[in-house]
Amino acid sequence: DAMVIQNPRYQVTQFGKPVTLSCSQTLNHNVMYWYQQKSSQAPKLLFHYYDKDFNNEADTPDNFQSRRPNTSFCFLDIRSPGLGDAAMYLCATSRGTSGSNEQFFGPGTRLTVL
Amino acid sequence: GQNIDQPTEMTATEGAIVQINCTYQTSGFNGLFWYQQHAGEAPTFLSYNVLDGLEEKGRFSSFLSRSKGYSYLLLKELQMKDSASYLCAAMDSNYQLIWGAGTKLIIKP
Fold it and tell me: Contacts of residue B50 in chain A, CB cutoff 8 Å?
């Protein structure tokens, strides 16, 4: 089945220790997104790629970086995690960015910062 | 600014009907999405409306009024598995999704 896969599902890190979250897709979609979602809040878009074109949201902290080495994979690097970065991180894909292009989400990685 | 408003929480009875409302203010408009999100899981797509009117899909229907900046999601014949958060998201003129915080729907037997 075509899908969006995120690893790991649960990640525990220490304050200030870099962490990398990964996402892969078998849908062959052009667009990949990274969202941060805290409990009972709206998903917050961090980045998106249209193919290799990188788009950084204006209010995404410099502490967050992203890489998309090929169509299938995308990584989220948190350089120095703080307690406020504990959240669910959702990867999503879509065929395009316009109109009816729904986003398909992976299961998420829940990040805990100790 | 751009904004989505939806109720924080609603309660309904198994077998009944519930309507979840959403109002939006965006710079331009390219459609409105509804997603379902069970606790601790990823959102899953339910519906997309870009034209005024009602779209029916099984037990779920979604309505849009562009002139009023208003949408609702209608769930019929509620089942316990429908207990989840329902997220409304409007697409602006730059094709960015503006997300609501979600409405937590609690179904009671």
Answer: 99-100
B13 vs B54: CA distance, rounded Å? 23
H/E stretch holding A23: strand A19-25
A31-37 vs A104-105, strand pairing mode = unpaired
Count Cβ atoms below 10 Å from residue A68 Cβ, excluding itself: 20
Q: Let me know if A4 is exposed, middle or buried by CB neighbors in 10 A (0-12, 13-18, 19+).
A: buried
Residues of A in contact with B91 (CB under 8 A): 99
Which of A20, A11, A39, A37 shows the shortest CA–CA distance to A80? A20
**How close, in Å, is residue B86 to chain A by CA atoms?**
11
Rounded Cα distance, B48 and B61, in Å:
10
**Contact yes or no for B40 and A110 at CB 8 A:** yes
- Whole-angstrom Cα distance, residue B22 to residue B89? 9
- Is some CB atom of chain B closer than 8 A to the CB atom of A14? no
Among partner residues B33, B100, B102, which is closest to A102 by beta-carbon distance? B33
- A39-87: pLDDT as tens digits: 989 999 999 999 888 888 878 999 999 999 999 999 999 999 999 999 9
For B39-89, how does the pLDDT look when each residue is reduced to its tens digit (9 = 90+)?
Answer: 988 899 999 999 999 999 999 999 999 999 999 999 999 999 999 999 999
Tokens of B69: 């900046």
Report the length, in residues, of chain B.
109
Q: Which chain A residues are Cβ-neighbours of B30 within 8 angstroms?
A: 98-99
